[in-house]
Write a structure and sequence with these properties.
The chain is mostly helical. It contains 3 helices and no strands.
Amino acid sequence: MIAENLKKSNIGITLGIIFETHGHGLIAANGSSRVIGTAILLIGIGGFVWGCLNYSVGKGYSPFLGFLGLLSCLGYFVLLFLPDKCKNGGSAKSGSGL
């Protein structure tokens, strides 16, 4: 796994989960906090997808696999179990079709 992408993915996924959780909490509350909760939830989803994108690139796969983050933790678990094409922090081999 590429170390730079691992750091970015950890930040994006962690902040995404925090924002999504708080956004859901505000949406569940009654009142005007639903609009703010929806905005926070969307920011969290964006952060989570960005983190998954960096995770897939760090493992040597296409950045489009990052959109598995739209499936939340299920998409992350799919990425988690993909084999790492970038062993020892190196880059993926050229000509792999990426």
